[in-house]
Automatic annotation (TrEMBL):
SUPFAM superfamilies: 4'-phosphopantetheinyl transferase. It catalyses: apo-[ACP] + CoA = holo-[ACP] + adenosine 3',5'-bisphosphate + H(+). InterPro entries: 4-PPantetheinyl_Trfase_dom, 4-PPantetheinyl_Trfase_dom_sf, ACPS, Ppantetheine-prot_Trfase_dom. Belongs to the P-Pant transferase superfamily. AcpS family. It holds the Pfam family ACPS. Its EC number is 2.7.8.7. Mg(2+) binds at residues 8, 59. Residues 5-113 form the 4'-phosphopantetheinyl transferase domain. This is Holo-[acyl-carrier-protein] synthase. One of its GO terms (molecular function) is holo-[acyl-carrier-protein] synthase activity.
Amino acid sequence: MIQGTGIDIVELFRIKEMMERQPRMIKRVLTDKEREVAEAMRSEKRRIEYIAGRFAAKEAFAKAMGTGLGKLSFQDIEITTDSSGAPILNSIVLTGQKCFISISHSEQYAIAQVIIEA
């Protein structure tokens, strides 16, 4: 049974601007493990897509939980990948629920959808 669903879309140029204006934004949004992955990326374009995708995914998850990011922190949510590269969402607030996540990018946007199943 579906417990919650959330979707979020962000403009890549806004994430790039935030990164330039507020370098600490990356530490606020990404966990240590996510930051390691981002820092290893050689292409700035791909790094921005990655950060924007994680940002959108965390926002989408907070919406699916029905709490928004006021009650959850970006640090409470971590997106890793499985062996084939598909995203996996982990959070301290998931207790027995199954979480499905999809992240996509275009030239201008990153979008993420999360479905939580009880």
